[in-house]
Design a protein that fits this description.
The complex is a heterodimer of chains A (118) and B (142). Chain A contains 5 helices and no strands. Chain A is mainly alpha-helical and 118 residues long. Chain A folds into 2 domains: 70 residues, no CATH class; 48 residues, no CATH class. In chain A, α1 packs antiparallel against α2 and α2 runs antiparallel to α3. The model of chain A has no long low-confidence stretch (mean pLDDT 91). Chain B has a domain of 99 residues. Classes of the chains: A mainly alpha (118), B mainly alpha (142). At the A-B interface, α1, α2, α3, α4 and α5 of A face α1, α2, α3, α4 and α5 of B.
Amino acid sequence: MTAKKVWGLLFAGVFIGIINGFFGGGGGMICVPALLLIGLSNKQAQATAILIMLPISIASAIVYYSNGFVEWDLVLYTTLGSVVGGVVGAYLLKKLSNNVLQYIFALVVIAAGTRMLF
Amino acid sequence: MPWFYFLIAGLCGGLVGGMGMGGGTLLIPILTMFLGVEQHLAQALNLLVFIPTGIIAVIIHAKNKLIDYKVFGIIIGPAIATAVCAALLVGKLKSETLGLLFGIFLILIGLFEMYLAIKNSIKNKNKIKKPILKHTLYPPKK
């Protein structure tokens, strides 16, 4: 790996950490394009990004917990739904190949963000 | 708030996350806007919800040899350090301020995703369609 790529990754790490720690999510959405940029394949970038997000999320979660921001019963129910949704989503991904979903996602996120400003 | 609302919120986030888009980016506004969860709590909830799903995904991807451990090794140090600092800082912010910043973040992420989607569309359009080799099924007549 070239020095330029190493520095790029270090910088990406700083940025991803700030975003994910500050907003409690969204780091993966920056991590995947960053890994694609240094030449990883689509699947490799997605897989490696999840491994990167794990320790970051655990470390941030510990800080949130120590600040008293965790309600465990809500975590339990939401996690149950999320695991089921994750499996179904991964299965659906194999069936759908176009990027219409990406457009819909972008629009929904922009709408939600705008709603949060007002 | 009934427990199954949270189950459904998790289901929505997981579904989007499983399809490789930002599950948490969607789960947090669902929790705050529809279920009235406070912003800090929603963010902590999202971090914790990701952990079990992430572990399962990593085990599957590791078996399929899709993980680049060298990249992981380089990126993870600064990422953890800044994540902890940012999480400490967030604890000092008011809920309203954080919610506002999160809204701006969502709009930026949405615009970025839109840019990536357009780029993908252009790439797919430019792909040369390979002709289907019919003679692999029906040998050509000589």
